[in-house]
From TrEMBL:
The gene is atpH. It is a peripheral membrane protein. It comes from the Bacteria. Belongs to the ATPase delta chain family. PANTHER family: ATP SYNTHASE DELTA CHAIN. F(1)F(0) ATP synthase produces ATP from ADP in the presence of a proton or sodium gradient. F-type ATPases consist of two structural domains, F(1) containing the extramembraneous catalytic core and F(0) containing the membrane proton channel, linked together by a central stalk and a peripheral stalk. During catalysis, ATP synthesis in the catalytic domain of F(1) is coupled via a rotary mechanism of the central stalk subunits to proton translocation. This protein is part of the stalk that links CF(0) to CF(1). It either transmits conformational changes from CF(0) to CF(1) or is implicated in proton conduction. It is found in: Cell membrane; Membrane. Its main location: membrane. PROSITE patterns: ATPASE_DELTA. Keywords: ATP synthesis, Cell membrane, CF(1), Hydrogen ion transport, Ion transport, Membrane, Transport. This is ATP synthase subunit delta.
Length: 178
């Protein structure tokens, strides 16, 4: 079975448990934090995949690394370790977040800007771009890129809305050369 399918199954099971126990928001926060740490530290997953570690050692490592995490998340990660599926930890987190976002009408967005966005600017961007992708609101991650010169570039899924000055200059240059 391919990794996305495996990750989807575990994420869906975790999502259902979270809904039953009214822990959806807490687990969402935990998985976002865990995903961020795992992406920044890929060596942890490599360590968990090591054939030198027994399943018991892997379980202990997960338990020690995630001491304040809810039991559904810990148990899911333990099951993944038991079944030698440590490679899908990040995908499980992403899939869970996607399920919760879909239920709530939220889309994940990355906004590139010259400076950090204020809360009001984030709300305004969410109000403008969420309807364009059929969602109620956006969960915005702001990335500061001083090379843009001005404006913003919004990435939602595989759609990019480029309103940056650099993007406009690039489009103008292409028009002039064609």
């Amino acid at each position: 079975m391919s990794n996305p399918v495996v990750a989807e199954r575990y994420a869906l099971a975790l999502y259902q448990v979270a809904k039953e126990q009214n822990l959806s928001d807490k687990i969402d926060e935990e998985l976002r934090a865990i995903k961020k740490v795992l992406v920044q530290n890929p060596g942890f997953i490599s360590l968990l995949q090591s054939p030198k570690l027994s399943v018991v050692q892997k379980r202990n490592l997960i338990e020690q690394s995630l001491p304040n995490v809810s039991s559904p998340v810990t148990n899911t990660f333990m099951i993944l370790a038991d079944r030698h599926r440590e490679d899908v930890l990040v995908e499980v987190a992403e899939s869970y977040i996607n399920h919760l976002n879909e239920e709530r009408g939220i889309a994940e967005a990355t906004v590139y800007s010259v400076r950090s966005l204020t809360a009001d600017e984030s709300k305004a961007i969410s109000a403008v771009f969420a309807p364009k992708v059929g969602k109620q609101t956006l969960n915005i991650e702001n990335i500061v890129d001083p090379n843009m010169l001005g404006g913003v570039k919004v990435r939602i899924g595989n759609r990019i809305f480029d309103g940056s000055l650099l993007g406009k200059l690039d489009r103008l240059g292409r028009q002039l050369t064609s």
